Amino acid sequence: MHIPLDAFLGSPIFNVRFNPNGNQGKGEEDTLAYVQPGDAFDAFITPKGCESGPLHLAQDLAHEFMHISLGHNSPYYINHDLPEEPDHAMARQAETACGFAIQGKAQEITVTPAP
């Protein structure tokens, strides 16, 4: 299932839910937010996500909304890992499109004052 991101964001059927138990997936203990394969309508926030602060939480939600937009919560991924490239990279690109610093490997940036 693929949903254009603008349609997803404008739809009242999608939810952001709190999971007090966090993400129980293998290697996902430190996850701040996630989508669940087989659940087409929800993004979940973990206790660590709530502790991360509003700006970081907004970044995580942009990332998870893109996963939903790209169909990464489809039942197919219950039994298959999400490829890092290009699928997961596209969710990271959504973060930068929304004005956030990309998560992942450390990056150097140069800021030049405007004249």
Structural overview:
This protein has 115 residues and is α+β, with helices and mostly antiparallel strands. The chain has a single domain, classed as Zincin-like (2-Layer Sandwich). Helices cover 35% and strands 10% of the residues. A 3-stranded mixed sheet has the order 1-3-2. Helix 3 crosses helix 4. The protein is globular, with a radius of gyration of 15 Å. It starts with a helix and ends in an 18-residue tail after the last helix. The model is unreliable at 105-109 (pLDDT under 50).
Largest sheet strand order: 1-3-2
Question: What's the shape?
Answer: globular
The top level CATH class name:
Alpha Beta
Mean pLDDT: 77
Summarize the structure.
The protein has 115 residues and is an alpha+beta fold.
SSE blueprint:
Elements: H1 5-9, E1 15-18, E2 33-35, E3 42-45, H2 47-51, H3 54-69, H4 84-97
Parallel strand pairs: 1-3
Antiparallel strand pairs: 2-3
Helix pairs in contact: 3-4
Question: What features would you highlight for this structure?
Answer:
3 strands; alpha+beta; 35% helix; 115 residues; single chain; 3-stranded mixed beta sheet; Zincin-like; globular; 10% strand
